[in-house]
Amino acid sequence: MRKRIIWSDIKGNRLMAVTTWLFMAISAFMFALTCFLFVSLLGSVDTLMEKAQTPDFLQMHAGEISETELLRFAEENEQVRDYQVLNFLNLENSSITLNGHSLTDSTQDNGVCVQSGSFDYLLDLENKMIRLSDGEIYVPVCYRQEYDLTVGETVQIGANSFILAGFLRDSQMNSMMASSKRFLISESDYDKLKEAGSEEYLIEFLLKEGTDVNAFATKYTDAGLPSNGPAITKPLIRMMNALSDGLMILVILLVSIVLLLISMLCIRFTLLTQLEAERKEIGMLKAIGISKGDIRQFYNQKFLALSGLGAVTGFLLALVAKGTISAQIQELYGASENGLLEFLTAFAGVVLTEGILLFSVGKTLRRTEKLSAVEALTGQHWGQKNEKKHLLSPQHLIVVLIIGLGIFMMILPQNLLSTISSPQFVTYMGIGNGEIRLDIRQTDDIAGKTEQVTKLLSEDKQIERAVTLQTNSCRVVLSDGTYTNLQVEQGNHTTFPVTYAEGESPKEKNEIALSYLCADELGLCVGDRLHLSIEGAVQEYIVCGIYSDITNGGKTAKAAYLHGEGPLMWSIFYVSLKDGAVKDQWLSDYADILSDSGISVKAVDIQEYVADTYGQTIREIHIAAWVAIIAAAFVIFVVVILFTRLLVANDRCDISLRKAIGFTGKDIKELYLLGYLPVLLAGILTGILSGNLLGEKLAGLLLKTLGATGFHFLIDYKTVFGWIPVIVVITVFCAILLGLSEIKNIRAYECCMGKE
Predict the structure, then answer these.
(1) 570 FRET partner, CA 20 to 30 A, in 17, 170, 285, 398?
(2) Cα–Cα distance between 712 and 55 in angstroms, integer?
(3) For residues 402 and 675, what is the distance between their CA atoms, to the nearest angstrom?
(4) How confident is the model over 170-181, as pLDDT tens digits?
(5) What is the residue-wise DSSP string for 2-28?
(6) What is the per-residue pLDDT for 671?
């Protein structure tokens, strides 16, 4: 019997039921989708790294090596489970052509290698180890869409042609945030190409479970083993793999939270509207002896049914959408083996979401207990009694909050997009804000070649500013007397500064600045003292600043001067050209000059580097930003219609009276439109302030975990203060006009008949 009554009530209030179901379904969908994508991303990355057997510690090295010494170190170290040295032939990007596209403009270091024999395998799109024949080549999967490649095409490397046999997944270098990319060829083809590039070595170790990778890295350095290149650890590889898609999932999560808050307010609106319409019926039920508990249980059961329907709808929609949205993840990393965990996590997310919404419904329903049968039957509104009308009633404040939350939902991804796309974002990556960056890495005589390039830059009349920064490997003396390695970049850090969260760039000889993650790990703040051991001598430095850095694992330092010469790892040059200089031409000319001088330098336009590194992330956040704008506009539209209909229902007698004394429907609509102006302005102001201030804090919390601190939004003012408010104003006024359409059905005589 009760089920029939509930079903009859739902059919009699279709609009309210559909609205409630819709918001419950949307909330469930967003949280389920977030859970699906998050678990899928981590599962895909972990599955790829497990099947490829990613090394725990990798040292890249250019120059001569002694495999005997490396083997002795591996055999004598109990922490080593397996060890190998792989060859990597670094090629000039201009010598590689994919589908008619030269890689000249690529900011990646591209090269060829052969399949590994022990671990660190290169896998095909089924995550199986690749076996190929002479004349065939496998290309990194990240280039498939970028250059529109298909199997069977010709890949040109210098004078050699290869048949594209497939695409590879590289657990180390899959992400565009990894600066190198490996192409796979056969051993005989590798031998043919040896003279076409410079050979490097990947010295790799698999470590026993529970081994401290950082402590192992220190042991490796202390042993004086080859280290002419960056050292990479497995946690850093995992972070780089997950970061680009992880930012997009973060945006979806933040939008999901905002949508949940909006849904709570919207369902409250819907319920209040229904309670207002059924006020007399509730009073009659109370008058004939139906308990307040039974009345509340009736509504609870109805909303429980709608919640169940919304949960199922949202979950199924998330299941469908997950396949499309996670296509990029599966392209790069393969299918996750966490299918059951994905399902259970998404289900838990849906249950939690619906539980929060039902809790909110329960709190609202308690208002039915405060209204007596006499008050309901005589026309008292919920909780109003004889209160005076204020400029913004509690219901108006809810609309203000929903408009504000909607604008917050629009602004947050838009601000993230404009920040990551901005030229200044590089300063949060630990990169100076110059136009051009030149790197000398993994080559012989880095110090000598650094001097040559510095001299060339100082004599160039097209250059406005240029600095040379050299990175040395130093050892930090910890409080317990042990050591840990630290890469210290010395030179002038004031010309092209990075972003500092605290303090400033080092200027004096005894000053040093630390990256946020490094300072956090060492437990140091601005003003603290740090002891560095260089060539056996211990020197004291004062921490003068803490800056953002998400490169090189995020653990670096900067000094104006080092007391001693530790091992030189690499050199970097930042360049800013004078007005009138053509950047592309300058880069081309310098590539020829340095090549003629026998100096291998990687020269990149910094903005192109950011576009290549974060291009995928920027595209995904751009899509998320537009979806957020459309979703928020839709939610605001629905809520304002509901609220307007509630106002018209409550004011039906007043509207009838106005018509009776000569007001036209148009006059009455204008009064309502004017009444909405303070609500609309307050909502827009609330949304803009919260989106820019609170949104910045939320985004900063995530980036801080990656090493970017002192984060500030780089705002696109035209969008945030122009287009978004315009979209909201148009949406709100269209919704108001639609909600006020009921006024034409109200007759002047109704007030005389006591109708509402």
Answers:
(1) 170
(2) 36
(3) 17
(4) 988 887 777 788
(5) HHHHHHHHHHHTHHHHHHHHHHHHHHH
(6) 82
